[in-house]
Amino acid sequence: TLKLNPESCQKAPINYIIGGLWQKVGLVLDCSKSELIKNYLINRFDTFAEQNVNGTQYFRVAVPITDTIIENHIAGKITIGAYSTSKEGTCKWICFDVDAHRKKDDTEEDVIQKEIKAEDDLQNLTSFLDRMQLRYLVESSGSPHSYHVWLFIKEVEVEKAYYFANAIAKEAGFDGEVNPKQRTWNKNNQYGNLVKLPFALHRKHNVFSSIHGWEGETMDIAVYDISDIEIPKIRKNRSRSVKPVNVKLNGVRPCILAALEKDLSGDQGNKMRVAIVREFYNFGMTDKEQLIDLFKGQADFDHGKTEYHVTKIIEREFNVWPRETLLERCPKYMTCENCDRFDCKEA
């Protein structure tokens, strides 16, 4: 049961993010670490993921989450992660992932630039949330210059959590990972994605994650009710038996070509890579090796990984992304105001 602070039970001014909508917020007083995990972070209790002993990967454990498992996690005996979606397709939280993870072939300059970008991303995101008067928690997640920024919501359909989270990311100019990553829930994607729970021992770095400002046994947290959000209708996927035909576009668009000359990193960069493959494939580049070669200029290019993702993208028949989808998913790469492709703007 939420213990509501009268001063906080006002409608929070987040209308700038989601149109004219104003949402209710409740303040949970004196929330302990175990209560935070149990009541506001675990979406399903029938299973969880555990980090292996060297901290390199997770494996799913098909047993219920108990109070003992939670306490062992906080004590550092095990490190667990929770899934973003319940068995009913609902979600209790939003998590923005800011990281500066080092890759094995990174130079020292690469690492420095990643660290600077991570700190800038954190500052820009939290400054935006402060301006919107949204209360959040920042967690140092255990890796250097890596953070989770948590927003807690009253349990709601995952598509509403997804829409709200991405609305914030778009307005804040945040291009890191946004959780939940799944727009919808179905039997083929019933777990959603995995996020390591706070207060964990990162077994690779042997460092506990920590919530900024959590100095005692408890902390006050805010829980937002976003149940009244109205999600814009989206187009249904075309039948897989219908071959995509781009009758309204006259060839690959300038924004797609220009993106190939840019650094396609972060969440928006990954989405732009999908858009690039779909665009070139639909306009006649059906040779897989040619599609792979499009990304040779990227700093993180790996032939095997690129081949895997290209194969996944082209194995189903999908059309190119319309302008509205590009603006929603990868706005940092879009320069529509300077583009004279009226066939795209009118499509």
From TrEMBL:
Q: Which residues form the TOTE conflict system primase domain?
A: 61-206
Q: Which residues form a coiled coil?
A: none
Superkingdom per UniProt: Archaea
Q: Entry's InterPro entries?
A: HP0184-like_sf (IPR044919), TOTE_primase (IPR054347)
Q: What Gene3D superfamilies is this protein classified in?
A: HP0184-like
Protein name, per record:
TOTE conflict system primase domain-containing protein
Q: Which organism is it from?
A: Methanolobus profundi
